[in-house]
Specification:
Largest sheet of chain A: 8 strands, mixed
Number of strands of chain A: 16
Largest interface: A-B, 98 and 98 residues
Order of helices and strands of chain A: EEEHEEHHHEEEEHEEHHEHHEEEHHEH
CATH class of the largest domain in chain A: Alpha Beta
Shape of chain A: elongated
Number of domains of chain A: 2
CATH architecture of the largest domain in chain A: 2-Layer Sandwich
Radius of gyration of chain A: 26 Å
Strand content of chain A: 25-35%
CATH topology of the largest domain in chain A: BirA Bifunctional Protein, domain 2
Oligomer: homodimer
Chain lengths: 431, 431
């Protein structure tokens, strides 16, 4: 008999089917037992009347791997409206130990470090795997939106000879006897690829040796990067960001609907044009409202981003807000200045519900501008990058979006580690 | 005027359009000049009659970034059957140096190290970017096929505490003062994820400190990995491999048709069932044919794989051949033995035109089997992995496919470096 998943059972009412999965939980009453069988997609209740089978299953511990054949019966009382009657149960494999926490509860009832230490078990919980499916659907939506805009996916080196962002936070490794680093971003490579393919994106790991333990930083995270040529300025990049985020939301709705329901996710509306505020205006708004002296500071603090998130919701009814024109002082060397406003740049961040989600902007494209911006830096390790500009590059720009941060904000997780399968940070190298 | 790409020009016959791109080449005759403008997708010829414009463009060096407005005229003589007349040309940005090799030739005329040293330029050549588009389409096809089979995409750690494959070939790094390694594969993580999501795949970088310089090994490559639960044995995994490869071929045909044409790629037929030969039978065939004493050896040499590739084409008319049942001796610790044939395993390789493309098989799933297989190994760094088996795991299996090797074989490239954007090997850490 062909296996049927728990989510397909409803379509087989009146037939016998074969399920396979894990014993999620069981309840034994006086004359009947209920086994909950969880597979990779859902949970189905199995009703055991037979006394012999009840006796044989009573001692099975949670997470026993089982195969169950039974008759599909629609029932309003059953979870999901369907259950299996008259079952046969075969044990496929038996756990060696009792779980340190119960998967059967609607929410995992253990502290985050315990859950992360026991990832192999915790990730089996319906809420945890729902966040994994939201992440997968988000990435699929990102790719789909960019594919439709003529972008090509690329895969670039993660072992590099030089910093791609500011010099700090680099992991160093031994590369056949030479010191090398893990790439902090695909920035330099995606810019080079604009010269070849014009529009590129990459979904891949980036590495930051973050010396601080915060709820929103990881030592490895998944960066959704894009870069495109022949832009007028950063506004053209922002238009692509809008399409990418809209694609992510649409694909989460389409592919991960059960996860959205289970996690009670409220998907954001992505307006045709996401509201935008200039950095300097944002600072004035914050200062006028909070009394804090923020005007003239080179960056926004997380508290200020939260304030702007509330403001965007209040003033524009939007979960998304572009902050545009950050001061050059705090942006990386490849940032294109605002030609009309000295000290400010053609760059932006996108805030999602008050958290920085995307960073992007227009880049320098003239070789001489790079020489000026890099004055004093050793250019040798950057030579393969600067070659792109020596050989002629158009105005271009791009952006990067942190996947875990997006999923965390979407799912209302307080810590990115809750939505990362196997997080890496200062204190965590395993599992 | 909205920009139009070189591949869209034909649809605008009789209209004026604006192109943007790089000056690929120009030819000046007595009364007319031909400028070839290359953008991210193709090349369009621009016909310059005006004497003033001919004079102003004559000195433009190749790779000058230009915008050209002109009238679209269909013409059998023009490359691609279309050209721009009566143009206006605006220079956007000027190269600083002359290219060290010419991009205008149908084939790049320089040695591989020169091309790799000058990747920012070489990747602009139509053949090189065609291979990039074949790679992107292949990955899209892999994902699409697995999405349709109910797989979920995951992203797993690339910084790990222990070897995932045999102990050699590890890059070591300093992880906040602790020694750590770059992951040689997502193997351990994808197995753990079978416990949660049942069917997972990952497309990401893997790292091998290969001490040898060969034409088919890289220090970083892109691995297409999949793993699935509740298999009967490796045959269920091979069925998924078949779908994945068929999906890759279909998507290359659909998404990268211009690249397929340009590179004269012959796409393989993927039969409903890919022919398979047992490892021991393969050795007997090779020995009978070549006279070499190979029966009893624990693995196949590249020359033997080539022989089998020819044999599969001759006997089965197939570019693809599964070799099944490799001896346990040469397979990793998680390999499931063949229960009916001592010394052999439930594993396989897929050869594509005589080159190993995929490795896969059924894995052990019982905790005690792992303890036996790992006898003598320090289990502490593997604890988070072994936890999955302690908590109950079903029979499962999976496979890994090397993207660069696939693209190289498809495009007829002798060296994987020819189809890798920025290859990493013993001697190459940049660009």
């Amino acid at each position: 008999m062909q296996r049927c998943t728990t989510t397909e059972v409803t379509g087989h009412a009146g037939q016998r089917v074969r399920l396979a999965g894990w014993l999620h939980h069981q309840r034994h009453l006086a004359r009947v037992a209920f086994l909950l069988v969880r597979d990779g997609w859902g949970i189905t209740q199995v009703v055991v009347d037979d006394a012999g089978l009840r006796a044989r299953t009573a001692d099975l511990s949670p997470e026993t791997v089982v195969e169950v054949e039974g008759l599909v019966v629609l029932s309003d009382q059953a979870p999901g409206g369907v259950e299996l009657h008259d079952p046969e149960v075969r044990v496929v494999s038996t756990p060696e130990v009792a779980p340190p926490f119960e998967l059967r509860r609607p929410q995992l009832d253990a502290r985050l470090p315990t859950l992360l230490d026991n990832a192999a078990l915790a990730l089996r919980h319906p809420t945890r795997r729902a966040t994994a499916r939201v992440a997968a659907a988000s990435v699929a939506g990102f790719r789909r939106a960019l594919d439709e805009l003529g972008f090509t996916e690329v895969h670039t080196p993660k072992i590099v000879a030089t910093a791609t962002e500011t010099g700090a936070d680099l992991f160093e490794l031994d590369y056949f006897g030479t010191p090398a680093f893990l790439a902090q971003s695909p920035q330099l490579y995606k810019q080079v690829m604009v010269g070849a393919l014009e529009r590129v994106y990459e979904v891949g790991p980036v590495f930051r040796a973050e010396p601080h333990a915060t709820a929103r930083h990881l030592a490895q995270y998944t960066s959704l990067d894009a870069e495109l040529g022949f832009v007028r300025d950063h506004a053209d990049v922002m238009a692509v960001v809008r399409e990418a985020v809209a694609g992510m939301v649409a694909e989460v709705a389409a592919r991960a609907a059960p996860a959205v329901d289970l996690l009670a996710i409220e998907l954001p509306d992505v307006p045709p044009e996401i509201p935008a505020v200039h950095f300097a205006d944002a600072q004035r708004l914050i200062e006028a409202s909070t009394g804090e002296a923020v005007v003239g500071e080179p960056d926004l603090a997380p508290a200020h981003e939260r304030w702007l998130g509330d403001w965007a919701r209040r003033e524009h009814g939007s979960d998304l807000l572009f902050v545009v024109g950050y001061p050059m002082a705090k942006r990386p060397f490849y940032t294109h200045p605002d030609p009309d406003r000295p000290g400010f740049s053609n760059s932006f961040d996108l805030l999602f519900r008050g958290v920085e989600l995307v960073t992007g902007g227009q880049r320098l494209h003239r070789y001489d501008d790079y020489l000026a911006a890099l004055g004093g830096t050793d250019l040798a390790p950057l030579d393969g990058y600067l070659a792109a500009f020596r050989h002629g590059m158009p105005p271009h720009g791009g952006f990067a979006l942190g996947l875990e941060r997006w999923v965390a904000r979407l799912c209302g997780a307080a810590n990115v580690r809750e939505v990362t399968l196997f997080p890496r940070d200062m204190t965590r190298l395993a599992p």
